## 1
Amino acid sequence: MNWSWMMPETVSTYGPAIDQLYYVILVITGVVFFLTEGALIAFLVMYRHKEGRKAAYIHGSTKAEVVWTVVPFLIVMAIALASKSSWDLVKNPANFPADAMRLVVTAKQFEWNVTYPGADGRIGTADDFTVRNQLHIPVNRAVRVNLRAEDVIHSFFLPEFRLKQDAIPGREIPVWFEATRTGEFTLGCAELCGLGHYRMKGTVYVHTEADFQSWAASRAEEQQQ
Amino acid sequence: MSTAQLVSSLEKEDRTQPGYTDEGLHELSFIRKYVFSTDHKTIAKQFLFLSLFFLVVGGALAGMMRWQLGFPGQPLPGGGVFPDTMAPGGIILPEFYNSLVTMHGTIMIFFAIMPLLVGVFGNLLIPLQLGAPDMAFPRLNMASFWLAVVAGTVMMASFLVEGGAAGAGWTSYAPLSTSGEWTGVYLGQQLWLVSLIIMGASSLTGAVNYITTVINMRAPGMTWFRIPLPTWSLFITAILILLAIPILTGGLIMLLFDQLIGTTFFIPAGSGEPLLWQHIFWFFGHPEVYILILPAMGIVSEVLSCRARKPIFGYHAMVLAMVSIAFLGWVVWGHHMFQSGMNPMLGTSFMISTVVIAVPSAIKTFNWLGTLWRGDIHFDTPMLHALSFVSMFIIGGLSGIFMAAPAVDIYLHDTYFIVAHLHYVLFGGSLFGIFAGITFWFPKMFGRMMGEGLGKVHFWLTFIFYNLVFFPMHNLGIQGMMRRLYDPNEYEFLQPLQEMSTFISISAFLLVGTQSLFAFNFFWSMFRGRQAPANPWNSNTLEWTVPSPPPHGNFAVMPTVYRGPYEYSSPEVDADFYPQDRPPPGAGPGGQAAPEPTPGPAPTPEPVAGD
Ligand code: HEM
Ligand SMILES: [Cu+2]
Ligand SMILES: [Cu+2]
């Protein structure tokens, strides 16, 4: 059994920053966990009932209250501020790479349809082509996906890329990511979307640039016929 | 009827008048006494039986879910009783699994934990701890219980209708929940909505009652800062209920309209907005999670102080922390929606408010530790549960910090990490708090002591199996396992986790099985337990000054309160406790030393004998 608290491998450019943040929180909460639970157990042993013992008649301490209000406040605020830059990097469209390759992913019960722009590089034209449950992308190039949903809410989850975003019917929500190595990875649905939710999955194929180009060309050709 | 007659007849019924008791006024029929009772203690017991029943139902649903997750696709032992639409040949279908997920969450939150905390302890403790003869509105109180029965019946009936019970999750996200087109569940989802609307009415009638009682019916000398913490927590909870439930009810009605009469509040095809549902639901939902934890915090504070024989550390800080949670709880709902498509800038604001609300939780934890420090700790069953609350709540609070950081939440959202978090606060927190409360006040409720030995065995097994079930879920979440999956093995990268899922499931069966020890102890003690004295725990609060169980009308003589509720090990007396109503030395008999005047509209500072 895997009792590990380590994050699994990540293959996106921003993945390591998110993992690092996770480890910072893990260390801070880990220390707090051992200190508080340790104090609890120590008190239980030290102050267990003994014949003739009377508890101390203490109602509190303003100084202690101030300390354990201010210190946790500072710690959690520091965590929050440290989290802000990664969050903005991943989710704020203003920060998305301008030259990213553009795709549309349309979720519906229970499949992911990925639309490519075709030869003209533009989506919404006749030479677009769509593949089901396969997301082919080149390595080391930013990809911007506009997420749509046809029926209910789904959630576009690329665990190895550290990306998750709900797809909402009636909206188009942009996300981006950039792969750092080639290989096959998981695309899953993370939002309960009906009885087939558990099998609403696809595969991310990260190719070298050349392989991607030839794949795209062959698909575009199929589309022409 | 003349005005004077009217006034005098009203006064006779006005239970806000101190000293009011109708004991002996009339012999109550069996039905009035046990079924349509207006006595707050009886209603507390009725809520107890009702919500323990639903706790069993919720546990059974969880057991079936864990069967599918531990042994995917294998026939459920005894599953042959289910029709083919649910589990043909005992093999649970995906749509039935979704109903199990949905109904487990719904029943546990709305029909088990909430009524256990608010219905049981609100009813039992508020009048007794304040020195009042009953609730301000006893008939409303009775209505609150019977509305809960109706709501529960409707919820259970939804299993039997065509299409099965609701299957869109306890959060019922639209548009999945707006039409059977998406789930195959039509009537079941509508009954779910109707049931929760009725349950909301039940909670509201309860809440106005608690609030009125706390404001108006405190015994002389029971100033705000002499109110025991369980009653404080229930008072604040009642205010949260009063404000939060109507929001949910509004949303439920809109969703019902979308289902039934063709409105499109949440349906984009009709230019509705799916995210509106989430905003409404979580604007209710986050205060709701505090409704589910505050009373447990109050109970645990009481038990810790009493069993450590030490004043609660930082009484005022404890109250202030609860008050600030009650305020901050309204501005954090967006942390459930970080990945929903809400503007990411808004995500940043909700991150700030969310980490701030972790601070009062930390304050409370440190004060509990401070209470134990230099105490004289008695490890009775209620105390074990209360200590377990503290240690488990620490874990739940700390895991919250991970998801409060939106960047980390990108990965953790909707995974088993969330499932672990919510069970550490709701089972490790609320339910252990409830066990602490039941075992602590059982003697007051039933006049008999609960078995200590069996109680301890039940505690330890529950504590161990509980952790074996829920702690590994953190690890599953970190490996990326999504929640609410019928069969995670569909995903190749989750297949290596099957062993852990099976381990969790076996632990879960043992955890559920262990609860039979509690059930046995509960019923056995009710009839065979040792006769309980008035004050078995040497506690300070007023409920322990009356017989166990207290008579109708509670206090033969209206008590006068001289001090705070946590004067344990005071140097002023030899014993290690100093009840709130004991006159200070030197005061004449009958408590002639002037009590602090009661603020607010509560009249008569003079203690009045019951008539
Ligand atoms: C100590 C401070 C706490 C923090 C910082 C915190 C934070 C969070 C966050 C950010 C989420 C959303 C995670 C996601 O869906 O991605 C969450 C979920 C949840 N929290 Fe907490 N939480 C705290 C305490 C509590 C308490 C005291 C309770 C209840 C007793 C609670 C009950 C829940 C529940 C039930 C969910 C899951 C709701 C669902 O999606 O089904 N939390 N918490
Ligand atoms: Cu889906
Ligand atoms: Cu919340």
Note: DSSP finds three helices and ten strands in chain A.
## 2
Amino acid sequence: MAHPSTQPSGNALSAAFIVIAVPLIGAAFLRQFLLAEDWRLVLGLLALFAVVLVVLERLPALETRIETAFARQSRLALLVGIVVVLGFPFALGGNTYALHLCVISMLYAVLALALNFQLGSANIPNFATGASYGIGAYASALLALNFGVSFWLALPAAAVVATIFGFLLGIPSMRTRDSYLALVTIAFGVVVHQLLNNLDFTGGPNGLVGIPVPELFGHAFSDPLVVFGHALPPQANFYYLSALLVFISIVFAERLHDSRVGLAWNALRADELAARCQGINVTWYKVLAFAVDAFLAGFAGTIYAFYVGFISPDNFTFLVSVTIMTMVIAGGMDNILGVIVGAFLLTLLPEKLRAFSDYRILFFGVTVILFLMIRPQGLFPQRLRRYGD
Amino acid sequence: MAVSSSAPLVLEGENLTMRLGGLVAMAEVAFTLKRGEILGIIGPNGAGKSTLLNIITGIYIPSSGEVRLEGQRLNGVPAHKIVARGIARTFQSSRLFADLSVLDNVVIGRHTHTKAGVFDAIFRRRRAKAELEAAAAHAEDLLKSVSRGLHAQRHRPAGELAQADRRRLEIARALATDPKVLLLDEPSSGMDDSDTDALMDDIRAVCAQRPDLALMIIEHDMRLVASLPHRVMVLDYGQKLADGPYEEIRKIPRVQEAYLGRKATQHAGA
Ligand SMILES: Nc1ncnc2c1ncn2[C@@H]1O[C@H](COP(=O)(O)OP(=O)(O)OP(=O)(O)O)[C@@H](O)[C@H]1O
Ligand SMILES: [Mg+2]
């Protein structure tokens, strides 16, 4: 594999240009895709995305060029990213449905990043991320409904509850591997779903209703968000909240990936026995991956519960876990950008293909397969680490 | 280079028996290893050589008998803690972290000498990063000292290396744990003569730089067995047949029959 060639420093300007242009183009593309009503436009945009992927696949030099630019200008990249994310709702022209899709996509991005610690970094097939998501949602909703706990307190509390369950799930998983491990996590997901469905205090199949709207400094999240005299729809409140959570998840993911912990996970992914023989406590690192996954999923669950105000067991089924898993695999294992793009694509596709009514899921499947044929390792595959630059 | 007879024992095994299912893979084997000593282990296929390494490194728990590192019992200590106490190994069929860079493979070898956990990685990033970068610098130096050719390839995925370099990388990764005892399981397997010679030179250099390092090396290549180890132990059907300098053990008829075979008999005669 080619690694980034060291280019002369005279390229700083073009690097800056790349770092500004690429996110803007990406955002413009996402905006068009979100607002597209006509199915022909949707297909056209998907085709355009496919072309970009083909070009990237054919010209690895271009890809490394872009990557190096972002690595060099990481501060500028962060700044551009923040500006684009903050400004994006204003570009949607008050379209509440588009904003709603953004919120859901971002929550899935968090879930996919959470699962990526396990599936991508450590190759632990966890089919229970949807369950952790549900545990977070129910824990915070119950706290709010029964004890009047505010959203801001319920958020960390629910994450802690989900983490505890993550640890619990990790314990039987320590003794199993591969397909057996997958089975344990599937069973866990089913048990959680059944409990939510049958327990009284979780509201049974009807779930929980009337989850109060979060407030911040007297501003209710159900009110429009007025910024500089410009009113954004109420969904914008949750847009910014989820964006913050995505940001936090990215920071977590990046820091863990580039640490001794990420390396240990990668080691046990590649060869568990060899990892043990380098002094890695394989069992502990597996349980840790479960806990980190559940922690982030718990956060996402809380935001979801307070966003929609109503949750039921069917929001957190096995299918949700499978969808999250597909996002990680299709997006790119152990690649943060890939996982996020995967989450957006897989959340938005079914919505945008509604024109095909009954054939929607078929088209969805075909599109994913086509993209994977272009990029067999996922949209943005794993990268080797570099030190000290 | 001889080992002084007064050198202290680092590793010893006593009465080691290993039953795997119905099979006795190892029966009442005892061995000793002194500081700075190189012990060769030979024996036909299935003799129990790798089994012995697996017992020492905690992959297997012996059915009876015990292993002691500097007098401390190792039975029941989990594999990852045995590494931290100072025993490192390579594998018969190389087991690298194939999709990670050559450098990362060695950095992972520093695991027991670094500390950062999840909390440090996220909230004390500077410290965690500094620690990891120090480990990477250490790994670079180690690669350079084991093999310049390998060091030049440090940013490639380990899975792309040629056979001989895989072996070197496995040795470098094991050395990164700063072991007192290094166990090599057939390092020259699958290599031609010139590769084996180059590898032998590298192993010699490694030992010369670390006079205190004790080495156990399982080998089939007789040229290597004849020249590298100070002492050779012969295993057959899980039992110890002989233990002594190569010059002595190669004369024992049962050893010739059991392992060295016709080829070695000719060698001895030549
Ligand atoms: N996990 C296991 N379960 C059952 N039998 C095993 C196991 N590991 C090894 N054996 C058996 O134990 C015996 C000793 O095997 P071992 O791998 O130690 O031999 P070896 O001397 O290293 O041989 P080789 O030169 O082929 O590597 C063999 O008969 C082998 O089939
Ligand atoms: Mg063997």
Note: The CA atoms of residues 127 and 185 of chain A lie 5 Å apart.
